[in-house]
Amino acid sequence: MKHAKDYQIVLSDEGVPVxxxxxxxxxxxxxxxxxxGGKHATLFRNDHDVLLLDYIPAKIVEALNNCNxxxxxxxxxxxxxxxxxxxxxxxxxxxxPLIDGLEK
Length: 104
Description:
The protein is mostly beta strands. It has one helix and eight strands, in the order E-E-E-E-E-E-H-E-E. Strands 1-6-5-4-8-7-3-2 form an eight-stranded mixed sheet, with helices on one face. The chain is globular, with a radius of gyration of 13 Å. The mean pLDDT is 92.
């Protein structure tokens, strides 16, 4: 699992969280966001590419708890062009074992 160090989150006009991440060569396959309702989430882009998204702002936490999907935009290194966008289903769980030990 990789730690996403450089990402942003905004809310769409519909209230859907949009995660803006650096581009990855590996294509997303059945992407899934594992979320326990706290400040951290785990994004499974595919079976071999997993990202820890931590310190999610309170406004986004509220939106995640009320949504069933997010949108991911992947940008180039300069950050001025979106190279890929896709929707990700949110799997809500009581306890996310992949973030054990992180402050909720």
